[in-house]
Amino acid sequence: VTLVEQRTSFSRINQLHIWSWCGEDLRGLGARLIEPPPRNFGTNPDLLHISVNDLQKLLLKVALLLGVEVRMGLNYGGVRWGASGWEASLDVPQRLPKEGDASPRGSSSLPSQYSPGVLSGLAVVIGSGGFASTIGDNVGLRMVETESLRK
Fold it and tell me: What DSSP state is assigned to residue 16?
């Protein structure tokens, strides 16, 4: 299994509200930063929350322990049929350094030891870009919105 992540750091500070059964699963994976929300603003004390960056770090640690190859700082460029089956191209994202970015301006160094290139012999490609995902565009798959989970 290979995971490709465009970001080079886990810096998102948003809080996610999670169900108690999900919190128990995360605690089983080693999460220690799950707390009920403060009692002000009429919040439900049965809901738990965790920051996005803490959740990303936890899931990265679990993935590494399970032997997942993690490639950070690379963009998914699309899939194509190659000599050895399905291949995905990876490239360096074109971005300007943001405020608080630890990388020096003009730096082209990657946070992982893997260079951009091609992943070959793929069986499954899964994207997590939500409705903005373009993972299947170049092979004729498109996103179709049906019913929402919330009514």
Answer: E
Please give the structure tokens belonging to residue 91.
């490239």
Tokens of 33: 């930063």
Distance CA 88, CA 77 (A): 7
The 10 Å Cβ neighbour count of residue 106 is 6
- Whole-angstrom Cα distance, residue 99 to residue 144? 36
Whole-number Å distance between alpha carbons of 119 and 122? 7
74, 116 contact by CB (below 8 A): yes
Of 71, 73, 100, 103, the closest CA to residue 12 belongs to 100
**pLDDT string in tens for the chain (151-residue length):** 888 888 888 888 888 888 888 888 888 888 876 666 555 545 566 677 888 888 888 888 899 999 998 888 888 888 888 888 888 888 887 764 454 454 444 445 555 666 778 888 888 888 877 777 777 777 777 777 777 655 4
